[in-house]
Amino acid sequence: MSRETWLEQLRRGGLDLAILLAVVDGPRYGLAIIQHLEAFTDLVVGEGTIYPILGRLTKEGLLESSWVEGEAAHPRKYYRLTKAGARRLREMKAEWRAFAEKIDRLIAATRGGAREDDRESH
């Protein structure tokens, strides 16, 4: 598997979590979610990727959406976390941390652990 393929799988696996995190502090419209992700991560997500995910998360009941008119030249659809979404977000954060800890333990168990990473980067 190429590095690019592996990184794409990681990115796709974390996008639901990233999107839910983007709206945890309040509603955002699609482009604002994209901009938020780009500002705080190096996740560059296009509209063709984010809107189907927003639609699916809404259909699953994790997000709800509403149209807001008057603040821009055209109405904007804002997405907000539902109670079910907040519960799922808590679960996802715990699962993410547990998974990362397992991988960190595996890295530490290898001969050299993190020191090996330092040697490879020089």
Summarize the structure.
65% of the residues lie in helices and 11% in strands.
The CATH superfamily title: Winged helix-like DNA-binding domain superfamily/Winged helix DNA-binding domain
Helix- and strand-based class? mainly alpha
Biggest sheet record:
3 strands, antiparallel
Overall morphology: elongated
Q: In terms of per-residue confidence, which ranges show pLDDT below 50 for 5 or more consecutive residues?
A: none
Strand order of the largest sheet: 1-3-2
User: What is the CATH topology?
Assistant: Arc Repressor Mutant, subunit A
Mean pLDDT: 90
In angstroms, what is the radius of gyration? 18 Å
Our count of domains comes out at 1
Considering DSSP H and I runs of 4 or more, what fraction of the residues is helical? 55-70%
Number of strands: 3
The level-1 CATH class: Mainly Alpha
Q: Report the span from N to C terminus.
A: 24 Å
CATH architectural grouping: Orthogonal Bundle
If helices are DSSP runs of H or I spanning 4 or more residues, what is the number of helices? 5
Q: What is the chain-wise order of helices and strands?
A: HEHHEEHH
